[in-house]
């Protein structure tokens, strides 16, 4: 084909003889591999390694990396000649004249490692020489190869001058503390010797008292020549890798150095103590991203360090930063920081109160910070109590204002310290005990239960059978749910009253106990779905004739729609949902769809539409069975269990009979209990900006746009870059959905995200200012949590199935903003 193209003078993708040779080589090697003769394929690659085309040599090296390890047991070829080791062959091309071939040789060696072939230790020396290559791609690949060989031979001695080049990766293991500490040491060198400063040289000259007199042989002779290859820079204390990295002019290098420090400090407590000063200095970096990464790094190693007062003073100075991300990240750091003295605790409290005065929006974060600061340092807080509470041994002092956030912050610190310090309550005044009772009810997630002298536990009235070691709130949650287990033994009216009472108790529990808010709201939502279903099925109007079935149709249809919405919220607004809960949620959703089918059938004329609706519902039941086949034994006596028993009959029945069977099974099916997960959190969002308090409208010319800054905090949102959307509702009913960019999201702490973006508004001219609503939505795909059945692995779900449904869920309070599009000037 190539010769025919050349004869006809037609240019094409195979116009180059080298390309043609390359394609033939790949095809022949592939055929040999398929025919079970990989050795011949490797031998063919070796023969073409001397080709003049770099592309041919690259592909030959790539094939050797993919197939070469298969011939490692072959010592002689078909002609009886010895077979060279494939690693030696690839290593010879580390010095190829073309940098692309050198890079391909290194990647082929890495491919051998990925396929399980142990690399030779001699490759390390070859790779180290490539670190001085003129081309960046070669040096980058060489660093990866050095790391692989270092992991394979961690106890073997290596060339010191090259360890400094890639220790910044941070993933080096089994490095001695001596070498790690040298990476923080920075000394001036001259001719591979430590260069003394001018002050040191002058001091030595002054102490000697004289210059060279010539009496001592060779006292002024020059230093001897030094073999550079015989000096180990690591042992000479000249590494300073992290010092150079933290002072680099490129902020990306400084961030990489901080991340590497974190990884190494987590595995070495002694190294963590020594690198603490360097991390604290990075808090003053000019780039916000570097400061933020330094704070996150120190939080990860906080268990191995204790801050001195001078270090704490530098850390607390960051509280004046204008970035809310920085301040909240520092609050998270202080939550898990160890302080050495009571003066440090007092300094931290004073600076946090200044932060509260300057930035009132940080109130919740500061209260949470002081909660953990007090619980971690009870003995240091104890001597500060009289000063903090302004108590006097002889005189009564004025009672502080309970509406003061600063006073509440002080009480949160003291009460959490008193939990493990039984002598502290003796220092409280009478009004302090009253304030404790108030805060225990209003801020129970910040104030713990205390055993006060002459008083009972505030929360002990929940249940007299609860032991002091058990969590009374958790016990109350379990008792509330156990009451629901007896639903089948009550009449319909009693069932509804019990469900309404339990839902109310769970909602109140979630408001009082933030730790149990996720579980309580999750359980209350599921019980609300069950209550809606019972109300829709127990109405007396189900027995009336279809033409009179108007009011009941609206009630039942609204109930089915609300159940569907609640089940989507349960599935996608909560993190920590396990497969057991997903099955129960989809079971409830299937019941809602059955109810919707029954309502539609009683109000629809004609059989043709019913045939399609019944067939679609039965397909969804079959899909449910295939997806959750492993969980079906746990769904005994449930709606879907009875439905699957009658599936052959339903497939051959008419729509009227199918509707009748579904209505009967919905009424007779047992209440399916919801297993509670160990840890569950509800996704939430709070819009900080716009505040929605200004009466001055944003004025802009109609047809043009105006930028609206949006700043929001996100809690417990999974994958916010792809799920969080911004919605704008205009007064005329128009809705606009904005997809924020991935760069608009920040991660100030675990489970928390920050959204800082701009929304562009535009509209036609209005006669007067009106409000637009801005809210955050959580987008979902209903196939995200459904496990694919074995017959569907690797394929796509049918669009007719329920998995094709996509929607959004509002998860923030709407904020109203005044805007005024004015007509353009003529």
Automatic annotation (TrEMBL):
Gene3D superfamilies the UniProt entry points to: Leucine-rich Repeat Variant
Key word Nucleus present: yes
Organism lineage string: Eukaryota, Metazoa, Chordata, Craniata, Vertebrata
Alphabetized UniProt keyword annotations: Nucleus
UniProt-listed GO biological process terms: RNA polymerase II transcription initiation surveillance; snRNA processing
Protein name (Swiss-Prot/TrEMBL): Integrator complex subunit 4
Gene designation: Ints4
Gene Ontology cellular component annotations, sorted alphabetically: cytoplasm; INTAC complex; integrator complex; nucleolus
Primary localization: nucleus
Domain (Integrator complex subunit 4/Protein SIEL C-terminal Ig-like): residue spans on this chain: 686-823
């Amino acid at each position: 084909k190539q010769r025919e193209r050349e004869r006809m003078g037609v240019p094409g993708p195979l116009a180059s003889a080298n390309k043609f040779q390359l394609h033939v080589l790949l095809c022949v090697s592939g055929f040999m591999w398929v025919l079970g003769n990989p050795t011949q394929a490797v031998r063919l690659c070796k023969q073409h390694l001397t080709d003049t085309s770099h592309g041919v040599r690259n592909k030959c090296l790539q094939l050797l990396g993919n197939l070469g390890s298969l011939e490692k047991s072959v010592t002689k070829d078909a002609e009886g000649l010895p077979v060279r080791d494939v690693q030696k062959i690839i290593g010879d091309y580390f010095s190829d004249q073309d940098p692309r071939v050198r890079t391909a040789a290194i990647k082929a060696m890495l491919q051998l490692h990925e396929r399980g072939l142990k690399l030779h230790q001699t490759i390390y020396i070859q790779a180290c020489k490539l670190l001085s290559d003129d081309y960046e791609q070669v040096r980058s690949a060489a660093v990866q190869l050095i790391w692989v060989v270092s992991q394979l031979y961690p106890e073997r001695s290596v060339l010191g001058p090259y360890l400094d080049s890639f220790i910044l990766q941070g993933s080096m293991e089994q490095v001695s503390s001596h070498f790690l500490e040298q990476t923080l040491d920075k000394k001036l060198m001259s001719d591979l010797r430590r260069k003394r400063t001018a002050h040191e040289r002058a001091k030595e000259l002054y102490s000697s008292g004289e210059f060279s007199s010539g009496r001592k042989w060779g006292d002024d002779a020059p230093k001897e020549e030094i073999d550079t290859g015989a000096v180990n820079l690591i042992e000479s204390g000249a590494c300073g890798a992290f010092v150079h990295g933290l002072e680099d002019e490129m902020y990306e290098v400084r961030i990489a150095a901080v991340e590497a420090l974190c990884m190494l400090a987590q595995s070495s407590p002694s190294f963590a103590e020594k690198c603490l000063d360097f991390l604290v200095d990075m808090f003053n970096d000019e780039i916000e991203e570097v400061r933020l990464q330094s704070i996150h790094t120190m939080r990860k190693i906080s268990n191995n360090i204790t801050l001195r007062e001078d270090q704490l003073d530098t850390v607390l100075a960051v509280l004046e930063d204008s970035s809310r991300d920085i301040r909240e990240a520092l609050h998270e750091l202080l939550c898990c920081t160890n302080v050495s003295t009571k003066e440090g605790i007092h300094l931290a409290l004073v600076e946090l109160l200044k932060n509260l005065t300057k930035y009132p929006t940080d109130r919740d974060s500061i209260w949470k910070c002081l909660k953990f600061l007090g619980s971690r340092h009870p003995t240091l807080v104890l001597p500060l109590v009289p000063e903090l509470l302004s108590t006097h041994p002889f005189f009564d002092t004025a009672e502080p204002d309970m509406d003061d956030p600063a006073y509440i912050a002080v009480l949160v610190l003291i009460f959490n310290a008193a939990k493990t310090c039984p002598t502290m309550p003796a220092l409280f005044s009478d009004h302090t005990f009253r304030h404790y009772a108030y805060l225990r009810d209003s801020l129970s997630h910040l104030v713990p239960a205390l055993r006060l002298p002459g008083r009972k536990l505030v929360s002990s009235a929940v249940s007299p059978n609860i032991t002091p070691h058990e969590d009374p709130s958790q016990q109350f949650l379990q008792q509330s749910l156990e009451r629901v287990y007896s639903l089948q033994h009550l009449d319909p009216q009693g069932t509804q009253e019990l469900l309404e009472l339990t839902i109310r108790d769970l909602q109140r529990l979630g408001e009082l106990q933030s730790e149990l808010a996720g579980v309580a709201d999750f359980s209350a939502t599921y019980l609300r779905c069950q209550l809606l279903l019972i109300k829709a099925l127990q109405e007396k109007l189900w027995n009336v004739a279809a033409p009179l079935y108007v009011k009941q149709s609206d009630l039942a249809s609204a109930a089915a729609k609300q159940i569907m919405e609640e089940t989507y919220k349960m599935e996608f607004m909560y993190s920590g949902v396990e497969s057991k809960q997903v099955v129960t949620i989809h079971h409830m959703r299937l019941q809602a769809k059955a109810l919707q089918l029954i309502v539609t059938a009683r109000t629809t004329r004609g059989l043709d539409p019913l045939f399609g609706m019944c067939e679609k519902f039965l397909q969804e039941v079959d899909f449910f069975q295939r997806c959750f086949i492993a969980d079906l034994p746990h769904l005994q006596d449930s709606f879907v269990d009875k439905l699957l028993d009658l599936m052959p009959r339903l497939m051959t029945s008419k729509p009227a009979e199918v509707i009748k069977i579904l209505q009967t099974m919905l009424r007779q099916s047992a209440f399916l209990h919801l297993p509670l997960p160990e840890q569950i959190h509800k996704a939430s969002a709070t819009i900080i900006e716009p505040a929605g308090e200004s009466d001055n409208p944003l004025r802009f010319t109609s047809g043009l746009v105006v930028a609206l800054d949006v700043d929001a905090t996100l809690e417990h949102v999974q994958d916010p870059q792809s799920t969080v959307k911004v919605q704008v509702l205009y007064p005329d009913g128009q809705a606009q959905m904005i997809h924020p960019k991935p760069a608009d999201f920040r991660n100030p702490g675990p489970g928390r995200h920050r959204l800082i973006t701009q929304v562009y508004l535009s509209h036609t001219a209005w006669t007067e200012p009106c409000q637009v609503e801005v809210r955050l939505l959580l987008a979902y795909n209903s196939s995200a949590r459904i496990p694919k059945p074995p017959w569907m692995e690797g394929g796509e779900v049918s669009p007719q199935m329920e998995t094709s449904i996509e929607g959004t869920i509002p998860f923030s309070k709407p904020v109203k903003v005044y805007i005024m599009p004015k007509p353009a000037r003529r």
